[in-house]
Amino acid sequence: MTSLAVTVCYYAAGRLGLMGRFVVEGVVVTPIWPPTGVAVAALLLLGARVWPGIALGSFLVIASLTAPGPTTVVTVVSNTVAPLCAFLLLRRVGFRRDMARLRDGLSLVFLGGFGAMLISATAGVGLQVAKGSLDKSEFWPAWLAWWVGDTMGVLLVAPLLLVLAGPAGRFRVRRWKEAAFLGLTALVLVPMAVLSPMSMLFLVFPLLIWAALRFQLAGSMLCALFASVLATFEATSGRGAFLHLTDVEIMLKLQAFNGSAALTALLLASVITEQRATRRSVRRACQELAEVLEHLAAGEPSPGPPRTTESRAAPPGGHRDP
């Protein structure tokens, strides 16, 4: 039943991802491939036993695009093995799902994203070259687009799912007001930055910094995902900040923006979360130390000059009485 739920989530994420697809050198790629983030998050939350759900979901997504054939097996296997490798690598280095340490954010970026997604990109594009659908000279542009799409799925979707699946913290009324103000600002600022033909994408980054400083991963990843999705849809239509650009320039600009937004949101939020956890630990240690000192002070004798047996036996000067 759990694997079936993963299949449904994977397929739904795949259909959403295909709405912003590009054709690079004859290969269908997406700047953000959400199913990889869904797969990695499902494995981290539920364990390796849900891999059949990932495989079935990948098969259904491919079947919705084209008639399944012998090459479909290779693509399904690579789409399943890549998240599994990400899961095993992250577990190997002691990855924590709350990502309360900078090392957790770096592990997700370099092991779960950049490293493990080499498998699916290499297998997927290499298969196109092997069967003759893609020329060898077109391998690297298609490979880069595939790899970045899978990686962005891990960096943008997986952290958000992990945070939402974790325990909810206390949220004061004052924080709700600030969260609402941040949301309204994002709804105004992000479309203005993306839709403007003057290329004002840099306006998104102060918003990401604000969200990371005040709301850590939940706030920063939501803002980064919203900005990346909106930028992707504008890029596919060639409007706004992507007006009058060639297909290659659109892809490069979009990849650079999505990657910068994801890394800024994820790593900065991880640093802030770790610093806050350290501050809480220091404060808790100070409180415990103060309690210990109070107990010690309560058990001390009344103050006075200490006198030992030896001092009573020998007067000052060090000689005994005869």
TrEMBL record:
Region (Disordered): 296-322
Subcellular localization: Cell membrane
Main subcellular localisation: membrane
Keywords recorded for this protein, A-Z: Cell membrane, Membrane, Transmembrane, Transmembrane helix
Bilayer-spanning residue ranges: 22-45, 50-67, 73-93, 105-124, 144-167, 179-209, 215-233
A cellular component term, taken from the record's GO annotations: plasma membrane
Pfam hit, one: MASE1
Signal peptide feature range: none
Residue ranges of every copy of the MASE1 domain listed in the record: 3-276
UniProt topology in membrane: Multi-pass membrane protein
Protein name in UniProt: Integral membrane sensor domain MASE1
Record lineage: Bacteria, Bacillati, Actinomycetota, Actinomycetes, Kitasatosporales
